[in-house]
Structure formats: C-alpha cells, structure tokens
Amino acid sequence: MQEEPRTIEAEAVRQRPDYEAAIVDAVRTSTAPRLLAMQLENYHAGDIADAFFRLTLPEREKLYRILKTDTLSEILEYLDEEERIRFINELTLRKAAAVLNRLEPDQTGDLIQSLVPEKQALLMELLDSEMRADIALIDSYDEDLIGSRMTTNFVEVPRDVTVKEAMNLLVKQAADNDNITTIYSYGNDHMYAGAVDLKDLIIARNDTPLEDILVASYPYVYGSVETVIDDLRDYNEDSIPVLGSDNRVLGVITTQSLLEALDQEMGEDYARFAGLMAEEDLEETLFVSLKKRLPWLLFLLALGLIVSWVVSLFEGVVAQIPLVLAFQSLILGMSGNVGTQSLGVTIRVLMDDELTGKEKRHLVVKEARVGFVNGLIMGSMAFVFLGLYILAAKHQTAAASFTISACIAVSLWLAMIVSSLTGTTIPIFFKKIGVDPAVASGPLITTINDLCAVILFYGLVWLFLIRMLGM
Description:
Blueprint (H helix, E strand, L loop, with lengths): L3 H11 L4 H11 L3 H8 L4 H8 L4 H10 L2 H9 L3 H10 L2 H8 L4 H9 L3 H10 L2 H11 L15 E4 L4 H12 L7 E5 L5 E6 H6 L6 H4 L7 E2 L6 H7 L3 E5 L5 E6 H19 L12 H28 L1 H6 L7 H23 L6 H37 L4 H35 L9 H27 L3
C-alpha cells in the first residue's frame, strides 16, 4: 500500500504530454500563420524555447515573423547564453532591437556586448533612448561594483501620497516595470525615503497616507561600493535599491542578480583555490590561459625546488636506511590531505566578516585538536600495519620493523598536526593583511606542508633511528 502513491506519481510523470514534440509538429504541419500563432499561445514560453532549436532555420524564421515581440522576449529568457546570441543573430535588426527593448537593461547590455562590433553599433542605435541611457548608466560602473549588477526595472512613488494614489502610480509604471513586489519611495529632491511591500499596500485603506506604512529603514546600498554578496544575501529581500551619490535610487539588485553574482564569486574562488588569477573561458587564447597559470606555477616550482633541496640534505639518512624512502609519499600525501581539509573549513568560516579574534583562535585550537586526534588514530594504525608489513615483506626483525614503523607513525602524527595548523593559520593571516584567503589555495598549503613533513620525517629518522639507536 505504501508504494501506491509513488506508482501513481511516476505514472503521472510518464503520461505528461510531450509539449516540445507537439510544438515542433504544429510548426511543421500548420500552413496558416494566424492559426499557428493561436496554437502557440497555449504553450508556455519555456516549452517553446525547449523546442526552438529542434526546428530548422526556415522554421524558426517563420516563428520570428508570426510571434509577438513580447512572446519572443519571453522565449529569450529561457535560452542559455550561447542560444541567446544565436537567437538574436537570426532576427532582423529591427526585430532584435524590439526584443532587446523588452529585456532588463543589464541583460540587454550583456547580450549586445556578446555580438560582433558592427552589429553592436547598429542595435544600440535602434534601441529606445531610455534603454540606451540605462545601459550607459550600468556600464559606467566597473565589474566589481554594485552598480554594474543593478537593473533599472523598479517602481518608485513619492512618499507624500495616499495608498490609493500610490496604487494608481504603481499601475501606470507596472506596464514597463515588472519588479513590483517592493515599491520604493522618494521624498524631497527625489532622495530615497524607504520602501513598502506590495502586500501591505494592497491591504491598507485607500485614504491611509503612504508614509504610515512606509519602511524608512529598508536596506540600501551605494552603486559605487564593491560587491558585498554576503551582506546583500543577509538582507533576505527580493530586491535592494542601489543609490547614487545624491541618494537617489538608480536601480535595484534583484534576487536573480544576487544568485548570478554569488555563482560568479564561487567560480572565482574555485579558480583561485586552484591557483588561478581568474576563471578561464573556453574562448580564451593560449596566451591568456598561460598568463593566468604560469605565475602561480612558477611560484610553486620555486617552493618545490626548496622541498627537493631539503630532501637532498637527508641523502645520508636514505643511504643508511633506504627502506624509509618508500614511506615518504605516505607522510607527504596525508599531511597534504589534512592541510587541504583545514583550509576548506577555514575559508568557509572566514566568509563571516564579523568573526572575532577569540573565534579565530578557537578555530585554530579546534583544528589543531582535530589534527592531533586524527594523527593519533592514523599514526597508531600506521605503527601496527606498517610494522607487520616491514616484518613480512622486508624480512626485518620484529624489533627493527616496529622501531621503523614507530618512527613513521610519530612523523605522521606530527605532520598531521602541523598541517592542520598551517591550513588554518595561513588563510587567517592572509585575511588579516587584506588578501583574499582563497589565494591560500590547495597547492600552496600542500607545498608548505610537504616541506614541513619532509623535515619532520627525515629529521626524526636521523635523530631516533640513526643517532640514538644506531640502525
């Protein structure tokens, strides 16, 4: 009986109409443009977008002619970046301009910049003057500033009106602006005065002064400040106004823009975590990719040479006890793994800009304790299993086997403690001096930990096995 709901649900999914196939069939069988347009009105723009590139170019051109501009702009919203460019390039210039005029300025600007320069200039000339002005405003901000991510799609009303008057103004502006969940208000000199939720506006009495339901403390940001994704996300609002230096609302940051910015920031952090200066693009030239990668690789090569030089200092140790060389990769690999784990935890914690010094010290102590316990467990296992391995496979005496495994176990234990500390303290140090802790990436931490692990491992072998025990 418990399986029945799932069975019914699965059956419903299987029986869902294939809208994509139906749209393609309608386009290919219908000869009357007006009838086809009426048929397509019954389908969601997302379904038409899914079917779009299953059609041939002549079939798509047929749709370009019969579909309304509003419908084409909706379809464009559901295409990915590459498909959007292809879509715009297939439209006539006037049709493309009409479609772009119905998008948000930031989207239109990004799309036009993706086209060839000749087409960019022609389309910009065909756009509405208001759209061109909005694009110019957004483009005036650098990519790392809030203003570059805003949209001018918002509704604004004066604060000294009644609820009824505000609703009338909202209705007039809603035709051109669909971000109406939050309505912004201005006072003297058109300066930002606060915001009101659409729901509160609807349920308020008509003769209520708007000022009575206005939230004067509604959050805002200035367009000229750097993108602070975490701060914006903490507001938990569907949109946040962006102000100019004169405290007038220039535009808004929407939830979608925040998600896109967050996705980009995570991509950049991932790139830095891999030792790159920025994300790479499929279209980048060989020279550009080399320019991003080589500086970091050269730095790591220098550190690697230092590690190799340190290893060479212990040639005498390896010559006396060649067996220990086989376990070098085990020590280095485990220390690198532990350091990367601590680095990941630390960077995640450091995303909180309000972290106090006491909390940072607690993080260091906590990671050291984790490294201590993990090292103790792994070291104990290494002592037992490596001792048995050396005894059975290398035909050493039991005393020699477990003496060597004990030295390896202690080295592993200490290396894991040190790795936990470096994986925590290095990004904290970078954060303190104003450097993005993501640049304290896996390769850097691993190389530093390799250096520490080599010194610990061969140093202990030399001290205990050779100097003290005379093996």
